[in-house]
Description:
Layout: H1 21-28, E1 32-36, E2 39-42, H2 44-63, E3 67-68, E4 74-76, H3 78-83, H4 85-88, E5 94-97, E6 103-106, H5 111-121, E7 130-139, E8 154-164, H6 167-187, E9 192-196, E10 206-213, E11 219-224, H7 242-253, E12 257-259, H8 265-268, E13 276-291, E14 301-303, E15 309-311, E16 313-320, H9 321-331, E17 333-334, E18 337-338, E19 349-353, H10 359-374, E20 379-382, H11 388-398, E21 402-406, H12 408-412, E22 416-420, E23 426-429, H13 431-441
Parallel strand pairs: 3-7, 19-20, 19-21
Antiparallel strand pairs: 1-2, 4-6, 5-6, 7-8, 8-16, 9-10, 10-13, 11-12, 11-13, 13-16, 14-15, 17-18, 21-22, 22-23
Helix pairs in contact: 1-9, 2-6, 2-9, 6-7, 10-13
This protein binds adenosine-5'-triphosphate and magnesium ion.
The site of adenosine-5'-triphosphate has 15 residues, from strand 8, strand 13, strand 16 and helix 9.
Amino acid sequence: MRLTRYFLPVLKETPSEAQIVSHRYMLRAGMIKQATAGIYSWLPLGFKVLRKIEDIVHQEQIRAGHIPMLMPTIQSADLWRESGRYDDYGQEMLRIRDRHDRDMLFTPTAEELITDIFRGHVSSYRDLPLTMYQIQWKFRDEIRPRFGVMRGREFLMKDGYNFDLTKEDALHAYNRHLVSYLRTYERMGLQAIPMRADSGPIGGDDTHEFLVLADTGESEVFYDSAITDLKFGDRDIDYDDKAQCQAVLEEFTSRYARTDETHEEALFNQIPEDRRRIARGIEVGQIFYFGTKYSEPLNAKVQDADGNEVAVHMGSHGIGVSRLLGAIIEASHDDKGIIWPEGVTPFHVGIINLRQGDGGTDAACEGLEKALEAKGLEPLYDDRDERAGGKFATMDLIGLPWRITVGPRGLKNGVVEVTSRRTGESEEMTAEAAVDRIAQIYGV
Ligand code: ATP
Ligand code: MG
């Protein structure tokens, strides 16, 4: 992509309404624009990262055996009356009336609708287990939308729902989600710690929240620092293997790690003092097992092997897809701008032409662009007729993890410069070697 043909409305000034760094950088880097309070347009650069995050979530859900689908954003109130949540949900639910005076709503979550789909089509234990999920916009009329996409009113969420015959099977679904989430967040360059949480209005006993440690996080968290040494890495997990999933869950949840809602001072004090941590975190996901809380009132039942009608055991599992952009930036930036982890970067590498209009540098940049694209990589070529300083500042702000700088002096010696955004370290090499280096980094 050529920058002169792209839409990247970078801001020079720091927007005064943005209180935290991720919000500031998302506005300054031209990633989002507020449409109205808590509701954003996703400009091309922000949309690209959003899509990358969605892709990772899809891939890891499908790897875990979960089935993608899509439900509508606007739903009828009827189902919510049936479950009893139409009244319970309160003012966070955006209620709408259609031209026939029917009560509708913009969905804040989708337990009711998925349960309705299930009960309409599944009647035998032979069709279980079943886990379906969607990545769809949600609306919650938050009393105080703030921090940009971190606490929006409209936001993108992955929500998944499992249906199982027994509690044991449903707990396996819970464990499977926990494992797949660990892998999902690590692929985004994040450490998200599963913490024992409170189930709130969704109800149920078993629930963990995944928290990214950051001073700007809204949750207060208490944990044993030993937990931050745990890495999921590239373990090859068989998601159907109950014992394997259970073992990973135990490994990642046996250390003390809780939100303030479930914090117990006495237990916390049993951790050796030098490992006790009180910090703040951003909630990027939550998993629930809630048994028959929805299947009973909504009559989602199947026949078991003995012919008895039994309510299915369910759970629901969410990832804050749009919030993740903010969380990643909070966890990965410096005073010049964003530093995207390779897994979610909007473009793989930036190309900077130090003397635009010079036949030699222009040809070298275009050659690099073509060679990178031939490898399936997406470079962003800054071909603006601008000072080098301005080009570097834009590239640093938008945070591409790698940059190739092309100037007449280097070309005379047959080299270009490859720079890491994270370390700032540069290395000179031929253009061919630069392409190979970038391809190697991205494993293509
Ligand atoms: P919170 O406690 O932050 O209000 P929640 O527990 O109500 O969130 P869930 O119902 O667990 O949210 O939703 C799943 C995920 O969706 C959350 O873990 C979070 O990452 C994300 N999310 C929830 N509310 C918002 C919001 N207003 N803006 C952006 N993301 C959100
Ligand atoms: Mg939650």
